[in-house]
């Protein structure tokens, strides 16, 4: 029997019980009306009691079903004992009025065994059997069938109730085991994903070491070898090349060693990126005035968010240097209550059309930390890139 079959079987047993109660009560009413030979007031009283019994049973079962679907709503379980007691009192009143309602006792046996603890259910069932016998004596129809039938019904109800409880316990145990299996599978999937990312990172780190890192080292050596052969202005350009290569070489080594950027590095790093743009533009005669500003009360950010902000600034300032043809650029880092924002604005030529590879890759990087990137630009009107990343203060 599978995990998904047990709940369906238990649900079918409950539905069968409710249908049996309705059928038995309906049969009792029809039989009472067919055999009725008393004062009409008695008929009205019996019909009223029957409607009260059916209505109370319906209200209780519907409330329990609604609670099982929506646990946050009204919980009828604490009132279950009182509800069943009222059901039994109404049934006893019908029983003492007519033997036609004796068969209703069979579904009631199951409900009593389910609602009450064994030490309470046993005496309640004994009282129900006594009520049936008393009614048979009262109406002068007592025979062994009225003694054996309900007694056998009570025994069968006890056995079936025990089986039902065991099935429910097994269903709960299987449900818990299934949830544990799901959690274990999720953990395995996450572990495999992390292992895959680590393997990919190791491969990428090897590629960086063999290409970029070695390339930056070669640039440094070549630049230093040229210094004795150039004039003063040329040396300044070489120094800028060396500083840029040295900075990128350091970042490549940090990537290779997996060193996260610390909180104290964020503002100086962004300010240094702006200064690097100014130096590089001055070396080629472009003269870009690039400034950095931090607003709001700073608070610690996670390494992932800090790295995203730094890589975003580097990528956007690279676009400023190579594509914008601007004279001014500004980087603004703002701290808010629930998020941190980064704005990079320039007064360059702007652009129209789809994003290039750099902006698409940056959009994905920002999305990886649940952030959003928006671009406002038009041809001849500069460009403004706005990044918002939600944060949780610690």
Describe this structure in words.
- It contains 10 helices and 5 strands, in the order H-H-H-H-H-H-H-H-E-H-E-E-H-E-E.
- It is an alpha+beta fold.
- The chain has a 5-stranded mixed β-sheet, covered by helices on one side.
- A hairpin with a 3-residue loop joins strand 2 and strand 3.
- Helix 2 (40-69) runs antiparallel to helix 3 (80-97) and helix 4 (105-115) packs across helix 6 (144-226).
Protein structure class: alpha+beta
Give the biggest sheet.
5 strands, mixed
**How many strands?**
5
Please provide the ordered H/E string of secondary-structure elements. Answer: HHHHHHHHEHEEHEE
Query: Into which percentage range does the β-strand content fall?
Result: 5-15%
Q: In which order are the strands of the major sheet placed?
A: 1-2-3-5-4
Round the mean pLDDT to the nearest integer and report it.
79
Poorly predicted regions are 260-264
Q: Which range best describes the helical content: under 10%, 10-25%, 25-40%, 40-55%, 55-70% or over 70%?
A: 55-70%
Rg is 41 Å
Please work out how many helical segments DSSP would assign.
Answer: 10
Overall shape: it is: rod-shaped
End-to-end gap: 48 Å
Can I get a quick summary?
With 394 residues, the protein is an alpha+beta fold. It has helices at residues 5-34, 40-69, 80-97, 105-115, 118-138, 144-226, 232-257, 266-283, 303-324, 357-367; strands spanning 289-295, 328-335, 339-346, 372-377, 383-390.
């Amino acid at each position: 029997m599978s995990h998904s079959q047990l709940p369906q079987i238990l649900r079918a047993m409950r539905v069968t019980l409710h249908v049996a109660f309705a059928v038995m009560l309906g049969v009792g009413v029809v039989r009472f009306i067919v055999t009725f030979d008393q004062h009409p007031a008695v008929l009205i009283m019996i019909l009223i009691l029957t409607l009260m019994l059916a209505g109370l049973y319906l209200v209780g079962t519907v409330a329990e079903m609604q609670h099982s679907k929506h646990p946050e709503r009204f919980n009828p379980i604490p009132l279950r004992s009182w509800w069943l007691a009222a059901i039994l009192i109404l049934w006893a009143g019908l029983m003492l009025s007519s033997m036609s309602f004796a068969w209703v006792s069979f579904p009631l046996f199951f409900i009593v065994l389910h609602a009450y603890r064994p030490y309470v259910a046993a005496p309640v069932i004994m009282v129900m059997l006594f009520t049936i016998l008393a009614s048979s004596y009262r109406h002068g129809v007592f025979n062994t069938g009225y003694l054996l039938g309900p007694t056998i019904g009570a025994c069968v109800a006890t056995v079936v109730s025990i089986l039902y409880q065991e099935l429910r316990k097994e269903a709960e145990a299987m449900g818990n085991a299934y949830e544990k299996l799901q959690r274990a599978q999720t953990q395995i999937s996450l572990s495999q994903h992390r292992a895959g990312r680590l393997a990919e990172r190791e491969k990428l780190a090897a590629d960086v070491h063999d290409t970029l890192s070695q390339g930056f080292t070669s640039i440094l050596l070549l630049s230093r070898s040229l210094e004795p052969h150039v004039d003063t202005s040329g040396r300044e350009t070489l120094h800028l090349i060396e500083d840029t290569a040295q900075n990128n070489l350091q970042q490549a080594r940090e990537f290779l060693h997996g060193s996260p950027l610390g909180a104290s590095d964020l503002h100086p790093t962004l300010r240094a990126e702006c200064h690097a743009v100014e130096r590089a533009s001055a070396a080629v005669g472009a003269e870009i005035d690039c400034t950095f500003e931090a607003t709001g009360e700073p608070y610690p950010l996670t390494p992932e968010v800090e790295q995203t902000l730094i890589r975003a600034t580097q990528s956007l300032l690279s676009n400023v240097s190579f594509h914008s043809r601007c004279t001014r650029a500004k980087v603004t880092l703002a701290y808010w209550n629930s998020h941190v924002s980064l704005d990079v604005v320039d007064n360059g030529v702007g652009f129209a059309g789809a994003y290039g590879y750099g902006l698409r890759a940056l959009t994905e990087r920002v999305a990886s930390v649940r952030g959003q990137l928006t671009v406002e630009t038009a041809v001849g009107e500069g460009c403004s890139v706005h990044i918002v990343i939600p944060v949780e203060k610690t």
